[in-house]
Amino acid sequence: MKALHFSFFFVLLATTVFGQQEAQFTQFTDNQLFVNPAYAGSNGMLNATALHRQQWVGFNGGPQTSTFSFHSPMNYESVGLGLTMVSDQIGPLNQNMIYGDFSYSLKFSNQHRLSFGLKAGMNVITLNTSTLITTEDDPSLSKDVRNQVNPNLGFGVYYRAKNWFFGASSPKLFEQSYDGTALNLEKRHFFVNTGAVFALTPTFKLRPVVQAKMTAGAPLSLDLSLAGIIQERFFVGAFYRLSAATGVYLQYQVAPTLRVGVATELGLTAMRKYNDGTYEIMLSYDISRKQSGIKSPRYF
């Protein structure tokens, strides 16, 4: 079974290095600053969100990702600032990222604004190839990588209205090497997402959200999320990733400032035979910068 795990890991590593490397989340709607710097300050309040994802539980070397984001509008409210930190591990590959986020918004009314964002930071990469057991000599896995620092830039746009939003972004514009060679590159990814809230009754709303992820050399990744919002406190959602996974999530608005969430996914590929599923936990906290308080709940 250990050999089987390593065999699957090589397939996974090839996909990770040459395909879609950016981490993915069931609760992606609540983690938008991760991919789009234009989201910074868009809610008109200070927000801190922590999310941890344990993918393919029981599978040796399965991905583990933790993110923390912090963002707020400034006194000059057209400007928003944020900070995004990510720890991502998959088998022998470890990535630690820290990015600053800047946004500038054009207000068309109290409920409509168009934001432009820039992201700047670095990715620190460690690859422990010595922990792998190989059956053939592979030059791309011949040496360890220790604290490879790759600076990068990203950009995004974000349009927000009262009950819907649209965003497009590329969080890493530069395709840089993992190990100093031209083989293992951080590929450039493009994200497009949109969502809306529909009030069906005074106590029940629906929130559909769609996110597409595109990169050269890999198929389109499409995430679909549909949440029912009950009495503005319970978010009960279903999730589907095209040809890859399906899942559910539950979030509870503990207080106007605090939301907690849990999620689980079941894979739709052959990998599901070798793991016990994927799990997430999320914590999000809002702080009003105005005496008028905050809108509760926050839909996006």
Q: Could you explain the architecture of this structure?
A:
This protein has one helix spanning 2-18; strands at residues 45-54, 64-73, 79-90, 93-107, 113-127, 145-160, 164-170, 189-196, 198-201, 204-215, 221-230, 234-241, 245-255, 258-267, 278-288. It is built from 1 helix and 15 strands, in the order αβββββββββββββββ. The longest helix has 17 residues, at 2-18. It has one domain (2-288): Porin (Beta Barrel). It is mainly beta and 300 residues long. It has a 14-stranded antiparallel barrel with strand order 1-2-3-4-5-6-7-8-10-11-12-13-14-15.
Topology (SSEs and partners):
Elements: H1 2-18, E1 45-54, E2 64-73, E3 79-90, E4 93-107, E5 113-127, E6 145-160, E7 164-170, E8 189-196, E9 198-201, E10 204-215, E11 221-230, E12 234-241, E13 245-255, E14 258-267, E15 278-288
Antiparallel strand pairs: 1-2, 1-15, 2-3, 3-4, 4-5, 5-6, 6-7, 7-8, 8-10, 9-10, 10-11, 11-12, 12-13, 13-14, 14-15
Q: Write down how many β-strands occur, each being a DSSP E stretch of 2 or more residues.
A: 15
Distance, first to last CA: 43 Å
Average pLDDT, rounded to a whole number, is 88
Spell the H/E element sequence.
HEEEEEEEEEEEEEEE
* CATH H-level homologous superfamily name: monomeric porin ompg
Strand content: over 45%
Radius of gyration: 20 Å
Reported for the largest beta sheet, the result is: 14 strands, antiparallel, barrel
Number of domains: 1
